[in-house]
């Protein structure tokens, strides 16, 4: 299978992987043949790309590090909590979230069990998310990434649960922000950004009152926008004042935000996001945490279409975790842009004169530089 932007979809193409709605429900199933009506429907969901299968790439498997049903349970737990908070806010009632922690412990335990069973995949996460760019899926993505880092650092199960639940709930305070701010599809103004910054304290105040949510998880919510050099918020903490869990979630939050589409911009390429985070080591985050995170990210994810320095176009078919910048590429177009009669694989580790110069699908990625630090996701 290969990743294709919605602008390049054609009727008759066959889905290679399930597409979910923002609340975790199945929108289109694997193997479904696309029609003009279905493509138009996808455009309205906010999804910018899907995986498709064709004869040239149907043996390339892009696996999910967690099962679809595990993701759905986690998304539903977040959705249920958000709806409860929203309804309480609308009715001006005191928020009562019975067994909130229990629901999230169950949901995260499934995530953790999947990750434990897929340690080889956790060693190097190779997929570009094509889920709906919603708060629900973002929260699950950050939890998966943060847990992978925690596992690499040798955290025990209790630590991983506190980290993972904190990651799943890191943005929960956003549901208490003004609705018009959350619904806005343009960039926030400076004044709106200041209002949005309140989500860390709002979330902390909510979570610390829940008897079945650990104070560590609540502090992840509070501190995930704090930065090593004191430039973060809400308290301007620095150095060891920031809990390691919060730094990990802050890293994962930035990466997933940058590599996901937003209404006002395309997604950034994985290598651009990795380069930005690499440069943040020692300034925004501890060096060892940045290194632990980057070890889990494939710069050229499986299923993505790339361009070689020869002009040939191919689909990444395999990634060696020790040489993520030199994957195996299934060549499908020659240097002149013509389809290759018989696609073939090139292992870039064994062909040192060949290298990837970018992604083929310009409609997917933002080519602007990442000089300024990302603001609140």
TrEMBL record:
Query: HD-GYP domain: which residues?
Result: 113-309
InterPro entries cross-referenced by the UniProt entry = HD/PDEase_dom, HD_GYP_dom, HDIG_dom
Q: Which Pfam families match?
A: HD_5 (PF13487)
SMART domains in the record, alphabetically? HDc (SM00471)
Q: Which domain of life is it from?
A: Bacteria
Indicate what this protein is called per its UniProt record: HD-GYP domain-containing protein
Q: Species name for this entry?
A: Brevibacillus brevis (strain 47 / JCM 6285 / NBRC 100599)
